[in-house]
Amino acid sequence: MQALYxxxxxxxxxxxxxxxxxxxxxxxxxxxxxxxxxxxxxFLSSFYMAINRLLDPILRPIRNIMPNTxxxxxxxxxxxxxxxVVLIVLGGIIYN
Length: 96
Known about the structure:
Oligomer: single chain
Transmembrane segments: 12-34, 74-95
Radius of gyration: 16 Å
Keywords: Membrane, Transmembrane, Transmembrane helix
InterPro entries: CCB3/YggT
Number of helices: 3
Number of domains: 1
Low-confidence stretches: none
Number of strands: 0
Organism: Qipengyuania spongiae
Helix content: over 70%
Strand content: under 5%
Largest sheet: none
Protein name: YggT family protein
């Protein structure tokens, strides 16, 4: 049973890292969109592209399912909600 708790904690930690990456991607995207930071900033631009490459395979299926909302992309929010639902369900299974 202890192994299940350990696996759950590892999944929770990886989920938290993924949520942090989504939030960082969102913030950097806002900084670029409102010209707070110039998009020619090499470090921030390459960091943003690296995060996009990591998250795009996860977000693309969600974007394909969701209706087009124009300039606002709700797929990161949907992913965060889905990840939290999965954690709640797994926690309920393991701790009961």
